[in-house]
Amino acid sequence: MSAPLPYPVLWADSETVARLFCIPESTFREHVAEGRLPQGVKIGKKRLWRVADVDEALARLLPNQNDSDRLINRLPGLRDGSKEKARRDAA
Predict the structure, then answer these.
(1) What are the boundaries of each domain within the chain?
(2) Rounded to 10 degrees, what is the CA torsion of 14, 18, 23, 25?
(3) What's the pTM?
(4) Do residues 58 and 51 touch, judged by C-beta distance below 8 A?
(5) What is the 3-state secondary structure (H, E, C) of the chain?
(6) Cα–Cα distance for residue pair 91/81, rounded to 1 Å
């Protein structure tokens, strides 16, 4: 596995998008094929996805979570029930 990128990713291929959202690439491709996630944009022979579009689509699949919950769930080490502590520390 490669090191994290030193800059925000705006557009990415399917492998990178799947890694960013911690899902298997096959699951990502399945959701795209079934219309739950955007189709991406084909540039030459490469298909790319705007990361913000994927994030919005995933948010629609999880309607009970607000933006701060989605962000906290994507941060390493905060999925173990320490969400409330993270909120207190951020305030």
Answers:
(1) 11-64
(2) 30
(3) 0.61
(4) no
(5) CCCCCCCCCCEECHHHHHHHCCCCHHHHHHHHHCCCCCCCEEECCEEEEEHHHHHHHHHHHCCCCCHHHHHHHHCCCCCCCCHHHHHHHHC
(6) 18
Q: Minimal CA–CA distance to 9: which of 70, 72, 52?
A: 52
The pair of three-digit structure tokens given for residue 74, joined into one six-digit string:
């994507």
CATH of domain 11-64: 1.10.10
pLDDT tens across 28-79, in order?
A: 999 999 999 999 999 999 999 999 999 999 888 876 655 556 555 655 554 5
